[in-house]
Amino acid sequence: DTEVTQTPKHLVMGMTNKKSLKCEQHMGHRAMYWYKQKAKKPPELMFVYSYEKLSINESVPSRFSPECPNSSLLNLHLHALQPEDSALYLCASSQSLAGSPSTDTQYFGPGTRLTVL
Amino acid sequence: RKEVEQDPGPFNVPEGATVAFNCTYSNSASQSFFWYRQDCRKEPKLLMSVYSSGNEDGRFTAQLNRASQYISLLIRDSKLSDSATYLCVVKGPGSARQLTFGSGTQLTVLP
């Protein structure tokens, strides 16, 4: 089973709202990721968690706040977003950050399509 | 120079055709290589990892040339369902390096 689930599938929010995106995997993976993808562009890495600790923050604005409550769950808290933050937000997981093809392979969830009005 | 470069296409080919995609990467110490496919408005899905000896999965063949820092994907006997964007993905050395995505090559297989 290589399933990563994400909720909600679609989200529309105003610039003053606070919302959260959720991601879950039950593959025993210890690395989890958040990506942002705009139309006709490749995914851009936002955050990496390894063994539930934040490992990489790609200079993401503080209006995006990640959280990893346990090894299966990853959240992305959103607050005071801008219209240009509208995009597909993808969660992914991999076995670890060990650096071999098997551990590096990332499996993506279906994404949350976010629209900021 | 971009870290991972792909021909963006689009490639429009008839059903049954053979099509090849190429990708170059800039970091000679890169460790892991993948092809993902992404359908419109969907998530990227792993198509295959790419190994130094080359590997095949049904109609798909991937090759890696470390000396030239070049990866290829060959699709034989194209099907309508192969229409998608194909992403070349490379992981740099060390645990701190993450996946770098090429910009993708769009393929449309025509009836």
Description:
The complex is a heterodimer of chains A (117) and B (111). Chain A is 3% helix and 55% strand. In chain A, the strands form two sheets. In chain A, strands 2, 4, 5, 6, 9, 10 and 11 form a seven-stranded mixed beta sheet that branches. In chain A, strand 5 and strand 6 form a beta hairpin. Chain B is mainly β and 111 residues long. Chain B contains no helices and eleven strands. In chain B, strands 2, 4, 5, 9, 10 and 11 form a six-stranded mixed beta sheet that branches. In chain B, strands 1-3-8-7-6 form a five-stranded antiparallel beta sheet, with no helix packed on it. In chain B, a hairpin with a 4-residue loop joins strand 7 and strand 8.
Notable characteristics:
heterodimer, A: 117 residues, mainly beta, seven-stranded mixed sheet, four-stranded antiparallel sheet, 1 helix, globular, B: 111 residues, six-stranded mixed sheet, five-stranded antiparallel sheet, 0% helix
Helices, strands, pairings?
The complex is a heterodimer of chains A (117) and B (111).
Chain A lengths: L3 E4 L2 E4 L4 E8 L5 E7 L6 E7 L2 E5 L6 E7 L2 E7 L7 E8 L6 H4 L2 E2 L3 E5 L1
Parallel strand pairs in A: 2-11
Antiparallel strand pairs in A: 1-3, 3-8, 4-5, 4-9, 5-6, 7-8, 9-10, 9-11
Chain B lengths: L3 E3 L4 E4 L4 E7 L6 E7 L5 E6 L5 E3 L2 E6 L4 E6 L8 E8 L7 E3 L3 E6 L1
Parallel strand pairs in B: 2-11
Antiparallel strand pairs in B: 1-3, 3-8, 4-5, 4-9, 6-7, 7-8, 9-10, 9-11
Radius of gyration of chain B: 14 Å
Mean pLDDT of chain B: 92
Strand-residue proportion of chain A = over 45%
The helix count of chain A comes to 1
Summarize the structure.
Chain A is mainly β and 117 residues long. Chain A contains 1 helix and 11 strands.
